[in-house]
Amino acid sequence: MKAIVYDKYGPPDVLQLKEVDKPIPKDDEVLIRVYASTVHAGDVRMRSFTVPPAEWIMARVFLGIRKPRRKILGMELSGEIEAIGKDIKQFKVGDQVFASTLWSNFGGYAEYNCIPENKVIALKPTNMTFEEAATIPNSGITVLKILKKANIQKGTKILIYGASGSTGVTAVQIAKYFGAEVTGVCSTKNLEMVKSLGADKVIDYTKEDFSQSGPIYDVVFDAVGKMDKKGKQTLKETGIFLNVNKHSGGMDKASKIKEDLTILKEICEAGKFKAVIDKSYPLEQTAEAHKYVEKGHKKGNVVIIVKEE
After folding, report:
1. pLDDT, tens digit, for every residue of 99-127?
2. Which one of 3.30.360.10, 3.30.160.70, 1.10.1040.10, 3.90.180.10 gives the CATH number of domain 2-136+275-305?
3. What is the pTM of this model?
4. Among 44, 214, 216, 242, which residue has the least CB neighbours within 10 Å?
5. How far, in Å, CA of 71 to CA of 293, rounded?
6. Tell me, what's the pLDDT at 250?
7. How far apart are CA 277 and CA 102, in angstroms?
């Protein structure tokens, strides 16, 4: 099968299209014919090994000391089940699924991937294409986990900084689903897009300093992990400040995360979530997709099309 493989850490060009062995599902695994994956910020960090100094040793152990241990990136995917192990009970051949591969050794940048049934995999939303569904798992799971800490209810006033990125567009929609009054902060070119996702108000950070509005928000969510103390200046006395890099926490058990993936499916099928795709690239142009994402200006998600629908 075709796959994008990297044998060493480095710039996007270390990603090479190669022929590798097609995986065979174990008794507890499903074999997925992958239709789409994404270029997540985490894929870029793993490929380039740009991690904070405090996380260097742990990251090396996890990813590989001298070279990548898991040679095929791709942290989320969507596709169709082609074969199942003998112990599979929840899925059948032909099921259309979406999954986060963080709990199952990555591998979205390949024509096939095996995922254990008890990991983070679910039937994909019926009202979404494979390309759209592939954008949901990781940002959706992260946002759900973080926003649960704020106990968002109807009328909660939340400011989302970085509202046009993959995490931001997800946060805007999920916060609205929970009944919040949402203010999104983004650049001029993305104002209308963020508003179209349901934001009650949008602030152009290139023209307006949102921190001068005073303490009016119940929750401030930094969806890009770049905000300084300015964000906290806008919080009410009992408000909560959330940072995507600090409050997503560690890796929860797959069973718990799988429940969140099912919740995301329900939100999508209720028509309360719209996938935002900036650009799509065929599998063989994955290195180019990484170059684009690495610039830091993507709007929503960048998708890798492994198989045309």
Report:
1. 999 888 899 999 999 999 999 999 999 99
2. 3.90.180.10
3. 0.91
4. 214
5. 20
6. 54
7. 21
